[in-house]
Specification:
Elements (H helix, E strand, L loop, with lengths): L6 H4 L7 H7 L5 E6 L3 H13 L4 E7 L3 H15 L4 E3 L2 H5 L6 E4 L6 H10 L3 E4 L7 H14 L3 E3 L7 H11 L6 E9 L24 H5 L9 H5 L11 H17 L6 E7 L3 H4 L9 E8 L3 E8 L7 E7 L2 E6 L3 E6 L8 H4 L4 E4 H5 L5 H14 L7 H20 L3 E4 L4 E4 L1
Parallel strand pairs: 1-2, 1-4, 2-3, 4-5, 5-6, 7-10
Antiparallel strand pairs: 7-11, 8-9, 8-15, 9-10, 11-12, 12-13, 13-14, 15-16
């Protein structure tokens, strides 16, 4: 696995892995099964077909809501010109031996069982982040990867960002000096009539065409609920809320740049301070979270997220003894030199300030398409995955620790070597 990508290996050719080519066939397409055609799944289904038209073919689509299943089928027909098989049960899709790889785009509480079932069925897996709903589920997946030898890519797409690759290069060059503090934030806002994560419920959705039992999986049994089915991210049974939807992207960004893998402690707090008044339904997860992570390498991550103001957008700021580097909105990287007045060394004061725009410099508006393409090329040509199961688990752990601290009102200590936590 490669922790960092370069333009050369990012855009490399298939010649790197002849053994894989012989097994797959240079002109054969990776046959894909697509599981989950909700908001994210429907969007990335189209992305896959656009970024890898010569290397992948969607063979089958699966969803437990007939409306989503139908639109997924139509999208594949429109773009590929061929009709995919359709399933309302992912296990039946996995029985198709012609399928090489599956994309899992379902709520996070379903990931563990789907990933392991796919691996044991001989499929490679692309799984949306977070990889898991609990730390222990990550252990199960890592064992299954080792047991089956199949590839798992996790959808923390900053691992395929050329801008973050450049950020790590700048850090490793010593340009920032000693980094002891990282500030990461993600700020959103929306019309009060459209609360965050209150996704639209299809008007034709009913108990007869939205299979609630399949949606629940092993989650606690509950009466049929359209909000739970379509707005699952606001319920603890199926989601870690901010910590596993947004925070994991940004702790992973710090891991990429600084070469870190795990904190040694975290303390988090938060609550519903805005949407609790405007959204009086059964919203459970907070709309505001702060978390402080301490890393054994000698730095802190201060994380904050809120859903009542979007002025600053989202990004990460790396505070070094010689310069500050910030990466904003997946697009802009800035480096600002430190100044100690007249005593500032020439090696610092003589450096030009840096600004790199990902679209202008690399032609990369968003790295998600390249992340998907990397997975397909890993399956077909044997290229290294940019975010394998281990890295995906490490990112997920930061989210789970933050959720644990917030919900239990305790500081959590993490022993990465033994994969164990304890509460203060």
């Amino acid at each position: 696995m490669s922790d960092i990508i370069t333009r050369r290996n990012f855009l490399g050719t298939a010649a790197a892995a002849p053994a894989i080519l012989r097994a797959q066939g240079a002109n054969e397409k990776v046959q894909v099964g697509w599981i989950g055609v909700g908001i994210r799944g429907y969007s990335l289904l189209e992305t896959l077909m656009k970024v890898s038209p010569g290397d992948a073919q969607v063979k089958a689509v699966c969803d437990s809501f007939t409306g989503h299943l139908a639109r997924g089928k139509d999208k594949v027909q429109t773009i590929q010109g061929a009709t995919p098989a359709t399933y309302d049960d992912f296990r039946r899709l996995l029985e198709d031996k012609s399928i090489d790889a599956v994309f899992i785009m379902t709520p996070e509480h379903l990931h563990r069982d789907m990933v392991i079932a796919a691996l044991e069925a001989g499929k490679h897996v692309y799984c949306e982040k977070p990889l898991t709903h609990t730390i222990e589920e990550g252990h199960d997946i890592l064992k299954a990867v080792e047991r089956t030898g199949k590839k798992v890519q996790v959808g923390t797409q900053r691992r395929s960002s050329l801008l973050y690759s450049k950020a790590r290069e700048l850090y490793q060059s010593g340009h920032l000096g000693k980094v002891t503090f990282v500030r990461a934030f993600w700020y959103r806002n929306s019309d009060p009539a459209n609360p965050q994560w209150r996704y639209d419920i299809p008007k034709d959705a009913t108990e007869s065409n939205a299979d609630f039992s399949k949606f629940l999986g092993k989650a606690p049994k509950r009466p049929f609920s359209l909000p739970r089915y379509f707005q699952w991210r606001i319920y603890w049974d199926y989601s870690g809320g901010i910590s596993t939807d947004l925070l994991v992207h940004q702790t992973d960004a710090a891991h990429i740049v600084l070469g870190a893998h795990a904190p040694k402690s975290v303390i988090a707090s938060g609550g519903s301070y805005y949407w609790d008044k405007l959204d009086k339904e059964s919203r459970e997860v907070p709309d505001t979270v702060t978390a402080a992570f301490e890393y054994p390498e000698g730095f802190h991550i201060n994380y904050s997220c809120m859903f009542a103001n979007q002025h600053y957008g989202y990004g990460e700021q790396f505070f070094g003894s010689e310069a500050t580097m910030e990466v904003m909105n997946l697009q802009d990287l800035h480096v600002y030199n430190e100044s100690w007045g007249k005593t500032t060394p020439d090696r610092i004061s003589s450096r030009p300030e840096i600004h790199i725009n990902a679209t202008k410099e690399y032609g990369q508006v968003n790295p998600t398409g390249d992340h998907i393409k990397n997975f397909i090329e890993a399956v077909k040509f044997g290229k290294p995955l940019n975010c394998d199961a281990k890295l995906g688990h490490e990112a997920a752990v930061t989210g789970h620790l933050a959720t644990m601290s917030l919900r239990r009102d305790k500081k959590v200590f993490w022993d990465a070597a033994n994969q164990q936590y304890r509460l203060s």
